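One thing: can you check what follows?
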Amino acid sequence: MKPFEFKKMETALIIYWSKTGNTEKVANAIKLGLEEANLHVTIKKPEEAENLDWFDYDLICVGCPSHSWHPPEQMTNFLKKKFNYYRENGKIRLGAPKVGGKKAIVFVTYSGPHTGIAEATPVGKDIGQYFEHIGFTVLAEWYVLSEFRGSKESNTQGRLGDLRGKPTAEQLQGVKDDAKRICKTPE
């Protein structure tokens, strides 16, 4: 029997949609961590990534804010278009068999004026299913508490307390460290 061989990830694609800049900050922290782990990283917004083939990368990271416990329309449209492309090209198969060496990370920013992370979790699960269906292994779903832009009341009186200034430098450092660490973990 051949011993287990761990193929080191070499390339990563980060795709994010950000309205207020919170998700963009997280995407950039992930990029820094992956680069510190010696990955070649490409970072794009959905409209810039439409013609990129996810199968050309070892790791795909997709992120967006939670908007009424759903991905924003821009991200949903992008993911559906990509899903349909892969279905038309035979990449969506019954049983969703795993494709070796292909991994994904999902990241979601959220605030806490109502129920907090419970509003973000469905977004991460939704995005993760796109990857599961094409056979990518979802390594992680990251949820990052962030400021609710434009409403002092929502930032200070919600269930999760005072959110002003989030994500903080400390939160972003944690994301960067997690991104670097996850590249060293076998499947």
